[in-house]
Design goal:
OB fold (Dihydrolipoamide Acetyltransferase, E2P); 22% helix; seven-stranded antiparallel sheet; alpha+beta; three-stranded mixed sheet; globular; 12 strands
Length: 198
């Protein structure tokens, strides 16, 4: 009988945990691509070189530090070659801290990131959480594409919940050109009126 009660308790606990996991999401202000572009301090195409998780000094929060190699600066500091992001969540030993909606990265992954200005600790954040991370993939014909995954992210606009619609994959070059066009309209890209002639 005790064994049956124990199994029943474990089953209920597992079910409650599963329901909690399914229902748990992060709510964030919905940003259009134009809003992401204009509000970001910097935009880069980069590759993920390293990821290290550790406790903070007070042993209260786990942070993951991602080191990224800049492949193409699109907006902001054009001289940056490496960027380090610090994000809430990660795994240290047997303890995992998961923040739904927070973008995660894999070593070797190529991404286009929309970044905020640096926080008080000196690290930029991804603008709009998962909205500001576009993963670069390669299509069957070799074309590089970008994709934005909004899993576990609830979006609100003007105080109303809106559906997190995942846009279809887009060619990387067209995506970057669109960002540059938006920046040009906003006056952030300076074009030489007298380009050199051959």
């Amino acid at each position: 009988m005790n064994r049956f009660r124990l199994l029943l308790a474990v089953a209920f606990a597992s079910l409650a945990f599963a329901i909690t996991q399914v229902a748990f999401a992060t709510t964030v202000q919905k940003l259009s691509l134009v809003e992401l572009t204009k509000r970001s301090e910097s935009i880069v195409r980069a590759s993920v070189e390293d990821a290290v998780s550790s406790w903070d000094a007070g042993h209260k929060e786990i942070y993951t530090f991602y080191t990224l190699k800049v492949l193409q600066p699109v907006k902001g500091n054009k001289d940056a070659t490496m960027i380090t992001l610090r994000e809430l969540g990660g795994t240290v030993g047997n303890i995992a801290s998961i923040v739904p909606g927070m973008p995660s990265f894999k070593k070797g992954e190529e991404v286009v990131l929309f970044l905020t200005q640096k926080d008080a600790a000196g690290y930029p954040w991804v603008m709009g959480l998962q909205q500001g991370k576009y993963t670069v993939t390669t299509a069957a014909d070799g074309t590089k594409m970008v994709r934005n995954d909004l899993a576990d992210t609830e979006l609100v606009k003007n105080g109303q919940k809106v559906e997190a619609v995942v846009a279809p994959d887009m060619p990387l070059n067209a995506f970057i050109d669109g960002i540059k066009t938006t920046l040009g309209v906003d006056g952030k890209i300076q074009v030489d009126p007298n380009p050199p002639t051959e």
